[in-house]
Give the backbone structure.
Amino acid sequence: MEDADVKVVAIEAVPGHENRVMRYLQQLHTARMTELVKGYVVCELDRTKIEAVSKFPGVRRVMPIEDLCDAGALGAPPSAREETFVPGDLVRIAHWPSAPVIGFLREWDGEQGVVDVALFGRAIPVLVTRPAIEPVPLPEQWA
């Protein structure tokens, strides 16, 4: 594979099928630098193979990552990453009573802010602090 034809991608796997997807990639010699990162398989993949890999059993979607720094940031703990938030960002509230919930950041002053989450069809404002939230990356097509 030439470097011009190689793209770094994050392959979202069905929960519990990450190792299977890694084995498929390794058996077919389709990818280089295969590693597991929080439910994703991150690898360098030939651009012509992206369509074929998206049809592997256990693969939900294949998302291109523009540079290796982003690939490394997927696996870093939240405290190791320095996030900057701006109103309008999509964020995940990790410390929610039942399960993590996603909402839009309405206000942010650097350490705390207000996130609008949808509960029973209504936008409910929730006061949050920096350690309680993490950014939700949007797929390249949505940006």
Observations:
- Residues 35 and 42 are 5 Å apart (CA to CA).
